[in-house]
Amino acid sequence: MLTSLAFIFLLGLAMAALCQKLRLPRIIGMLATGILLGPCVFGVLDASILSVSADLRKLALVIILLKAGLSLDLNDLKRVGRPAILMSCLPAACEIVGYVLLAPCFLGITRLEAAVMGAVLAAVSPAVVVPRMVQLMESGRGTDKSIPQMVLAGASCDDIIVIVLFTTFLHMAQGGEANASDFLSIPASIVLGAALGAFVGWLLSRFFETVYAHRHCIRNSMKVIIVLGVSLLLIAAEEWLEGIVPVSGLLAIVGMACLLKMKCTPFVAQRLSEKFGKLWLAAEVILFVLVGAAVDIRYMAGVGLAALGMIFSALLFRAVGVCLCLLRTPLTAKERLFCVFAYLPKATVQAAIGSVPLAAGLPCGSVVLSVAVLGIVITAPLGAFLIDAGAPRLLASEEEKL
Q: Which of 4, 84, 92, 370 supports an S-S bond with 303, CB 3.0-4.6 Å?
């Protein structure tokens, strides 16, 4: 495992630096490293690290969500209001509709199988989107209209809704029926997750205050370890409460970080954000290299141009969904275009659930997995490139407005 970690860090960073030199997003180099080191090409990575790949990817996601929560201003989010709520569900719903309408023609599958495929492909990747929105918030680009905050909030909720829909459609495809409780769990998971995170964040802030009042100073590095440990417990709580109460662990983490920012002094909140930013330097490499390793490029060979046409057609439906969310907002045409770009990347969810229909024995399983793999390979680099290249041109910074 240690040798595999060495390859992940050294080759991942080298490929990322090469892509950066070529003015391409660093993520392309990391994904390429994972594909090359993974079992489908050279098979360099040890089986032990592949067996814990999902947990390591989730750990990396926790770190960037903590960084995001500590950078997020809730007042900005309140100011956005309706569009932020719509961005969490409408673009994904439009993309799923696109698959239901077009996939039977493009790929020769049934409407229900197309719904399963749409649910696999509809989730935006928070691993790609969130760190870029955090960078924009820190640089003050687009923050006058809370654009990064809106995209960040929508992307954080988008996955929950899509995964619930995927579970429901998969159950229906296996001969079951959809239950109203499945759909009711979506808002319950979001609200309870945010509430749990806020409560835990308040408890943590009180703990830090109490310790400081007794003249015991906790170093910020120790606070980072405590916050990270509590975050992992929130992720575990989602699994513990499964079947009892629907709770989103990832949203709980964002809620906890937001409360910590509100209750801690600005200096402490900033220091915690900076330290999680430094942890992200290593976590980013692990996340995207292991996402690349999870991609089985052998499934791309048999899908052809039909799958490619299907993916881009569905992205047009998604773009329409984003534009509908932004109706009656003060955003300019350029800013709306940026929001469309920000909602393109797919990676983490597709790598996690793309193979589930095949494992469940659905006739469309291999097609779904093939399209999911192709979707990752196309949209993750494309979305990252359009966000990175588009932000300076489409979003104004605070300095430019002065």
A: 370
Q: Is the dihedral of CA 3, 224, 200, 268 positive or negative?
A: negative
Contact status, residue 207 vs residue 223, Cβ threshold 8 Å = no
How many CA within 13 A on the CB side of residue 398?
Answer: 10
Beta bridge partners of 141: 397
* Cα–Cα dist 380/129, whole Å: 10
For the stretch 327-338, pLDDT in tens is 999 999 999 999
Give 274's pLDDT tier (boundaries 50, 70, 90). Answer: very high
Place of tokens 């929130």: 234
For the chain, the residue count is 402
Name the pLDDT band for 272 (thresholds 50, 70, 90). Answer: very high
Both tokens of 299, joined, read 């499934």
Local structure of 123: helix, strand or coil: coil
130-152 burial by CB neighbour count: b if 16+ within 10 A, else e? bbbbbbbbebbbbbebbbbbbbb
The domains found in the chain, sorted by start residue, are 2-401 (1.20.1530.20)
Of residues 216, 218, 250, 255, the one with CA closest to residue 235: 250
Longest Cα–Cα distance in the chain: 69
Angle in degrees, CA 92, 93, 96, rounded to 5? 85
Q: State the distance between the two ends of the chain, measured CA to CA, in whole angstroms.
A: 52
